Amino acid sequence: MSLAPAARPGLDPTPPPAAKASSWSRRRLLLVLLLPGLAWLTVFFVVPILTLFATSLQTPAPSGEIGAFQPDLHFGIYWDAIQEYHEQFVRSFVYAGIATVLCLAISYPLAYFMAFKAGGARNMLLVLVVAPFFTSFILRTLAWRQILGDDGRVVSFLHWLHVLPQGTALTASPVAVVAGITYNFLPFMILPLYSSLERIDPRLIEAGGDLYGNGLTVLRKVTFPLSLPGVVAGTLLTFIPAAGDYVNAALLGNSRTQMIGNVVESRFFRIVDYPTAAALSFILMAAILILVFLYVRRAGTEELV
């Protein structure tokens, strides 16, 4: 005697053929839409990364010719690169970290004003934020050499305040490098912050005031937590390129302020030591990925827009 329940009409779990065909069509359309992006990432990201990794494992050719290398599995080059250039790695992360903190301190009040107080001037302020992008990155950086020059008003003002001793220069110093990085990457912090703050419902901020919270308390308990996705996105967009930057250190610094990007540039184009340059690039990328992962986990948000 069979104990299997009798099938009830209308409860058959098997989807009809028309539904299967529709589902397959949607998947095929999704695949077609993804193909251009996947092809772009494969050609311009995956292939170069694999090529760079293969280059990092090469060793000099027996001929001794400059720029001649042969395939090998020399993984020891990574440890050698860390030992030789650990100071530049640390300096890069310190400069990038300081610049990121300064960008956040400068950008948050400005983005807050643009989102809640600017009114009709909001569009003009947005134009002013992105206006530096219409000027060459090199020219903007070179301008800081004039701004921080010994005869400039900044140095004269600091001398007048007795903050900067006489005979001390700001150019070719860590201060100049950090100032250049902060200025050049400031828009990358302002725009995500503004986008995040602009999405906040003003009624939530008003509710915080109705619950007897003063302005600082509402900012700390309501506004800042709601804008955290913009803070995370802005700090990442600032820190990641700043850590690998070499233009600011090359134009505003000296031999004692070199960042790891300057070492990579020198190894690639001057010394023609491709394996070491590739290994340094991989180490920098891995370090940044680890720091970003830990930061996002610590920030407690995965919504970066």
UniProtKB/TrEMBL annotation:
CDD domains: TM_PBP2 (cd06261)
Topology with respect to the bilayer: Multi-pass membrane protein
Top-level lineage group: Bacteria
Membrane-spanning residues: 29-54, 93-113, 125-147, 167-194, 277-296
Cross-referenced InterPro entries: MetI-like (IPR000515), MetI-like_sf (IPR035906)
Residues covered by the ABC transmembrane type-1 domain: 89-295
Gene3D superfamilies referenced in this protein's UniProt entry, alphabetically: MetI-like
Region (Disordered), start-end ranges: 1-21
UniProt keyword terms in alphabetical order: Cell membrane, Membrane, Transmembrane, Transmembrane helix, Transport
Localization (cell): Cell membrane
Primary location: membrane
Family membership: Belongs to the binding-protein-dependent transport system permease family. CysTW subfamily.
Official protein name in the record: ABC transporter permease
Organism of derivation: Spongisporangium articulatum
